[in-house]
Amino acid sequence: MERINLIRSRTVVLPSTNIDTDQIIPARFLRATTRQGFGQRLFADWRFDASGAPRPDFVLNRPEAAGCQVLVGGRNFGCGSSREHAPWALLDYGFRAVISEQIADIFSSNSLKNGLLPIVVDATTANWLIAHPGVEVQIDLQACTLTLPEGVTVRFPIEGFARYCLLNGIDELGFLRSQEVKIRAFEQARP
Amino acid sequence: MRTLYDKIWERHIVVPETADTPAVLYIDLHLAHEVTSPQAFAVLREQGLKVHRPDLTLATMDHSTPTRTEQVFGGAPITVESAAAQIEQLEKNCAEFGIELLNLRHAERGIVHIIGPELGLTQPGKTVVCGDSHTSTHGAFGALAFGIGTTEVGHVLATQCLLQRKAKNFAINVTGRLPAGVSAKDMILSIIGQIGVGGGTGHVLEYRGPAVAALNMEERMTVCNMSIEAGARAGLIAPDETTYEYLRGRTRAPQGRAWEQALAQWRALPGDAGARFDCEVTIDGGRLEPMISYGTNPGMVMPIRGNIPERSGDPAFDKALAYMGLRAGEPIRDQAVNVVFIGSCTNGRLSDLRSAAALLRGHKVARGVHLLVVPGSQSVKHAAEAEGLDRIFIEAGAEWRESGCSMCIGMNGDNVAAGQYSVSTSNRNFEGRQGPGARTLLASPQTAAASAVRGRVTDPRELLAG
Prior knowledge:
The complex is a heterodimer. Chain A is α/β, with parallel strands linked by helices. Chain A has a single domain, classed as Aconitase, domain 4 (Alpha-Beta Barrel), CATH 3.20.19. In chain A, strands 4-3-2-1-5-6-7 form a seven-stranded mixed sheet. Chain A is globular. Chain B is an alpha/beta fold. The longest helix of chain B is centred in the first third of the chain and has 17 residues. Chain B is globular.
């Protein structure tokens, strides 16, 4: 796992509330047995029409979206299916963080395990970001701060252990495996 | 004073949570399927790891599997090639890692959330996980059951544990008694409509009250199944005599003395009187009505006899209605229907098929309507056939298929065409869920069957009244 500390990028905004993981990556693209290549299917039905041609009005198809690493979404981003293919697709496409007023639990957990930062901010900050697409923001994982243009800084919550793992490039599985003695003791103590 | 959730949580702590680290939580039952497991097995292989407790994982195939009999049993090729590859990969993974697999032709195969309870593996007080968000279904037994991602599937395979932070407690009280023609599906759709699709985020819901206690196990599973549609981590119903009666004698439930011991433990599980919840809502079950969804998430629901709400200045709402081709302020009753799907982990159990069949008996599906009935498991299929339900469906003009997720998720080629309206007993009406451009109206099996007969969105009470 790569270490993450600072992310500096312009934002792409998808203002809709309740963007579900079926939109992020439609189910028909889940018939794969590896983790690679989901980026080309990211938001497939919003990005492409039935013939496969890009929809020019969709935000990811506009030239200013190129190279953006931060996605701002409406409230309750990532709801629905538990498919981890959703953060895989976002990361593979080039996103490194998602900012929203509320982020669904399973999506958030899946994102942290793959190095995609789920950043929850207050309604005022979220609404400001939605109203100002394309602004340059900085995410500092060490300080847990999001810096908006003109130096406005807001703190964001993030689960402490996941943060530690991301800052240090540690895999959570390694930590779980290091608990093996306790796990075996727990199993033996059960009726 | 502890809630049911508090008690199950405490019984599974291997290492308690601290400010710095989440709890290490022990998992009693892991269900695996072909779509969200291959990348987890790949990690085990890359790291040279074994499965810590192969006896606590059961695998089956359901999401991308064919439902046409000739493809399941007749040797016809599976038309969706990538699905065939996933099925093959799961067989390989289970053989290599020593995991029991109920494969495509197995008589006990079915949707993961249907077969766990059916076999008696889902039991009160257990922790149950699966790489599928509808794992919340198993909460109907007073089991702490939740969906996980593929990385966590790997964690469970390698260690039988997960790193978890404790969620908050949310009580959903449903008072009174459901009126005739109103089902468990209508109850949960009403609840989601009230608390919203994000309303349960960070919480475990506990459904309580007389209207919940009066539900049978299959109905309770329908309610808990859709907890995730309110954003909740899990949904729970306290175990009681209904739960124990359902489990008694099931092949993988405890037997003999072990049964008596289990029963004594289970009886101690319900929350203490006076246990505190972080959040609470109360709904009058006696005033619930048949519900139907009109938008593109399961919180966009309405009583079937009502008018589509109006919400000015909400672009997401307008976008949803534009996708659905529906208009605010208008009734949804009599909306023409192209497809009716009866099945899924929400409503694919025997009692669901019975209540749909009761409405279809002696009727024909309206001209131009495609009715697809997909039992939730092979056991449900055989039981339905034993009592002649398949004949009722077929004589009404329906297609009767082998079990699987089918048209709920549209991964296996069972799709709704773009622009078509589908009344579906499944759990998600997201854009494209049943196929690109498909328009899904979520409803109960009764409403689905009545709408198939009339070819229009129909209140099932009209047909029930004769």
